[in-house]
């Protein structure tokens, strides 16, 4: 019985030690992965900065912070937004984010939503998606942020209508001159007005 008890204690201690070692190794591996991802992200952001500057963009801020608020069930909740860059070119401001791999595809839903949220929060019309691996900058314009430019048909029709109204009012008989044509012969001039 004593031997069985010692065996149970030794086995329990071994399991506890194994669990502690495994947990420590897993935590160390996760930290290593986090540091590696952070270093890769920092390299990508440095490269993205160079790409922006070469393309003529002026960096206004790196990692600009914006505290946004959303109302949930009548209560305001704050959350922090931190894009990679706020920049400008040609008098226009842009929010820019650097991506690698699948995230650099503008058709990726998460990427589009993130850039739309940044554009709304920073009140800019366009967002820049920097594909670090391909070395390219894609400009995204979200239609909900800018009014759609019409073709000007409304203005053209209004101008034509005003022109037609002005023309008809400038006629000697005004609007009445546009009535049905008369079949009666014009009246003869009065005798006292006849030429002499």
Task: Provide the descriptors you would attach to this structure in a database record.
196 residues; alpha+beta; two-stranded antiparallel ribbon; 7 strands
Compressed to H and E, one letter per element, the order equals HEEEEEHEEH
**Largest beta sheet: strand ordering:** 1-4-5-6-7
- What are the segments in which pLDDT stays under 50 over at least 5 consecutive residues? none
Kindly estimate the percentage of residues that lie in beta strands according to DSSP: 15-25%
Mean pLDDT: 77
Distance between the termini: 155 Å
Class by helix and strand content?
A: alpha+beta
Q: Globular, elongated, flat, extended or rod-shaped: what is the shape?
A: elongated
Give structural notes.
It is a single chain. Helix content is 43%, strand content 22%. It has 3 helices and 7 strands; from the N terminus they run αβββββαββα. The protein has a 5-stranded mixed beta sheet, with helices on both faces. The protein has a two-stranded antiparallel sheet with strand order 2-3. The termini are far apart.
Ordered list of secondary-structure elements with their pairings:
Layout: H1 2-54, E1 58-62, E2 66-72, E3 75-81, E4 85-89, E5 92-99, H2 109-121, E6 126-131, E7 136-141, H3 153-170
Parallel strand pairs: 5-6
Antiparallel strand pairs: 1-4, 2-3, 4-5, 6-7
Quick recap of the structure?
This protein has 196 residues and is of the alpha+beta class. The chain contains three helices and seven strands.
